[in-house]
Amino acid sequence: MAEWPPNNSEPRCFADIVHDTIYVYQPLCVLIDRPEFQRLRSIQQLSVVHLVYPTANHNRFTHSLGAYHLAFKFVSKLRSKFPDLQITSAEHLCVSVAALMHDIGHGPFSHLFDGPFRIAVKGNWKHEDISRQLVKSIMHEESVREAFKQYLGDGQEYETNIDFIQDLIHSKKFPKPLDQVRNEISFKEERARWAVENWLPKGRDISRSFLFDIVSNDFDGHDVDKYDYMLRDAKFTGASIALRTANIDRIMENTKVLLDPDFRFRRIIYAMKVALNDIASVGDARQRLNDVVYQHLTVKIIEKMFVEILLKINDHMKFRGSSGKLYRLSEIHRDMHAYVQVNDTILDEVYRSEKPELQEARSIVDKIQKRDIPMKLVQCNYSNSTISTIESELRSQLPIELQDKVFVIKRQLSKSSESSMHPLREVLVYDNRDARNGVNINEGRHLNEEDICTRTTADASVFGLALVVSRHLSPEQRQAIKEKFNEIMTEKGLRSDDNEDDE
């Protein structure tokens, strides 16, 4: 097979506000120039955030280019610094394709579509699974196969590499969580044997496991997707975070591929000094963006209004699939031809439409444009995420004319891992002092408690609950709703503040 990137062709250059210049090598431009990828220009990276932060108008297209840039750069460094890893040019290309295409499966308004809207219609799709489907379909088209086969092989070799790309985007690595296996199996040799026997990805065996940490890292959450979206989201919202491209460069420069100390498969391992500074900065930046951007109360209120719009058009706007069948918005994930027709411009279609059945949806769009959005009445914080019935309880105790004027918004204000551990405990490190002294290092280790004692504590997730109401209620109506809400909160052992805040 031919070497990639090719030396006999000039890359296409993209000017980028985060990474300055992004160089895209053939045959990746074949993918970029397809309508499925160009569609990402019309899908906002941050869904409705631009309605709160006006400059946050970046899209999935630019983020995908940024993730590709970092993935290409990361693998280039690994190939250059560690030739003994024997990373092939085909693997380099596969990782680059996966990073470029990882978000091609996003629906309109990004995570709003496969998040709150999917939950509201009781759907079961994920954008990562749709990305896998689209990649498989695109890579099997004759013109695409012809462009890639000199680098990825033909026949079964090509099929294996396509499986690899899909697995890099999203795949389950093992049948159950490693924490669970660690508790079930005491001896490292048995754990290592279990890992080999239970490795699930088809595109590469467990000896290439470290390559799966680059685009979508299931183990410690640090990958090029996260690096780019945090840098990009901060740049376009103006949110102040202590994370720069220099931090990412240091992370990549101080990375080794070593054995997992418990399961003996190869992972991306960080220098301890990098983990305690640059890797920790990634977590701090994620929390900061969560607090001031992703979970901003006005963002969550407008998000809820957008979900109402999508629910109201769900039965009235249909999209034609590959066989001519029409699909509702909540069904387009069943047919990729129907799916790729839909992007954020669906909102403009609703607003321009004169169909009477879309009038309710148009009225919500009109309210958003006029900034006629619900306002916060009261709020409280709590650590129990099971509280889900407050809105229905409150509405049931209000007069009928007020029941559709109130909403309860739940926000995740701080986030811990599923095991309620500090995120740094998921990171594996090597001691750079040992490396400098010539000590042979073949495995990573977990950070000690004293290593992370200066970092933030590992509290359970904290949620914010806000009662928002129509701006057109009278002071007396607001007071009645507030009193009823406080009664329910008191019954549940929670306390709310009483400060109205016209956000």
UniProtKB/TrEMBL annotation:
Any one GO CC term of the record: nucleus
Question: What InterPro entries does UniProt report for this protein, alphabetically?
Answer: dGTPase-like, HD/PDEase_dom, HD_domain
Gene Ontology MF terms in the entry: dGTPase activity
Q: Name one Pfam family in it.
A: HD
Q: Name one GO biological process term.
A: dGTP catabolic process
Give the superkingdom in one word. Eukaryota
SMART domains referenced in this protein's UniProt entry, alphabetically: HDc
Please state every residue range assigned to the domain named HD/PDEase.
56-239
User: Which residues are listed as membrane-spanning?
Assistant: none
Q: Which Gene3D superfamilies match?
A: Hypothetical protein af1432
Which family is it part of? Belongs to the SAMHD1 family.
Q: Which PANTHER family match?
A: DEOXYNUCLEOSIDE TRIPHOSPHATE TRIPHOSPHOHYDROLASE, DEOXYNUCLEOSIDE TRIPHOSPHATE TRIPHOSPHOHYDROLASE SAMHD1
Protein name (database record): HD/PDEase domain-containing protein
**Organism for this UniProt entry:** Diploscapter pachys
